[in-house]
Amino acid sequence: MRSATRVVQTRLWSFATKPFEVLSASLRSSRSQNFRLLPLGLTILVSWAGDSQAATQSVALAWDSAANAAGYRLYSGTTSQVYTQQIDVGNVTSTLVSNLINGQTYFFVVTAYNSSGVQSALSNEISYTAGAPTPTPTPSPSPSPTPTATPAATVQVTARTNPVGLNFTVDGTAYTASQIFSWPAGSSHTISTTSTQSGGAGVRYMWTRWSDSEAISHTVAPTKNTTYTGTFTTEYYLTTGAGAGGTVNPGSGWKNSGATVSITATPTNNTSVSYHFSSLIGSGTGSYTGTNNPGSIVMNGPITETAIFIQNPVQVTVQTSIAGPTFSVDGTTYSSAQIFSWQPGSSHTIATISPQSAGTGVRYAWNNWSDGGTMSHTVMPTTNKTYTAKFTTQYFLTMSAGTGGTVTPASGWKNSGAAVSITARPAAGYSFTRWSGTGTGSFSGATNPVNVTILGPISEAATFMHN
Length: 467
Description:
Layout: E1 12-14, H1 24-30, E2 42-48, E3 56-63, E4 71-77, E5 85-90, E6 94-101, E7 105-113, E8 126-129, E9 154-162, E10 168-170, E11 173-175, E12 179-184, E13 189-193, E14 196-198, E15 203-210, E16 217-220, E17 226-242, E18 246-249, E19 253-256, E20 260-267, E21 275-283, E22 295-298, E23 303-311, E24 314-320, E25 327-329, E26 332-334, E27 338-342, E28 348-351, E29 356-357, E30 362-369, E31 376-379, E32 385-401, E33 405-408, E34 412-415, E35 419-426, E36 430-438, E37 450-453, E38 458-466
Parallel strand pairs: 1-6, 9-17, 17-23, 24-32, 32-38
Antiparallel strand pairs: 2-3, 3-6, 4-5, 4-7, 7-8, 9-12, 10-11, 10-13, 13-16, 14-15, 15-17, 17-19, 18-20, 20-22, 21-23, 24-27, 25-26, 25-28, 28-31, 29-30, 30-32, 32-34, 33-35, 35-37, 36-38
């Protein structure tokens, strides 16, 4: 007499009689730690009960569903933990196994697999002896998982600079591009950089700080994912200069990128020369060209600024060393000092004549020009100048002798203030009597010889008497 229990199922598995293939090794090797499904609970749902004389029996099996499973594989064997047969039952959670030999004990496990074919860990193992009464479906306890050694924790560490592309080192190795390292958590490493790095002509980078606020070269031991950024300030070189006639401020030097700098030009002004500001001529990104003074620039790159100055007209004085003589400038005659305003370096002629009469017994004799030029010559002053014609006043000394003798020196022009020795020489049979002089500085008397001082026109007459 046979009885049957209805089982809801989608697959029927007939226990094959072909030679068994040992599958447990391949099972273990195909598991992936990346496919972490919860352990599946496998149970005997119901056995197919026939009379005890039947040669074969059947058993219905069921298991827990697994998240993300694409299907399940059922493994069996007649020795515990040695599985010689497998079947892919598809994406169902129960099946019927048939053709089990009466009296034989069978062992079953199930795995899930995902869409990539990667399998989960094994479920608990259950056993069934064909022809034996169906036990109350009590799940066998899941085996305790074998502890797996926990791999050493690693951290992802990024080292870089801002701006990018600058030099830094990690554990002595130099880099310029951002680097990502995988280090054991808490391991010790050294990061460093250099303070001043060239960026080409007129460009440099000055280290400011590391993102962890440590020294320019320091040790790190990160325990979590960390980024270390070396921050630099970009600097550009400002070149300032001035043409003839002034100065510019500030002087040349490095400036921070983006800095606003005021450029001031100061013209030269003194007793010799004076200039006025003309313009600033700039080159480079952020430079200024124009007539503003001061001019403002923004340091967006290397910049050159040059101040241009124009000389003002020079002040030129032409005069004589004493009042009275005349002179000429560019053909015009003057008798007193004159001040001219000339363009720097322009050409002009200054001249005088010598001697120049100043009345009876008085004249002016030219000595030289203060610049060493000839009596008439060209000048091209580039600074304020004074040209002085130097004259000497001369007076006429008149010498005469009466009968009976001679006098020396002869009559002639003498420089004002000169001391002149006059001598009377009597002829044979005569003797000197006296001098009779007229004019400032003259002498009258019997002294012979005698000095007279030429302070004006002078006349000196010597008289003699017969012995």
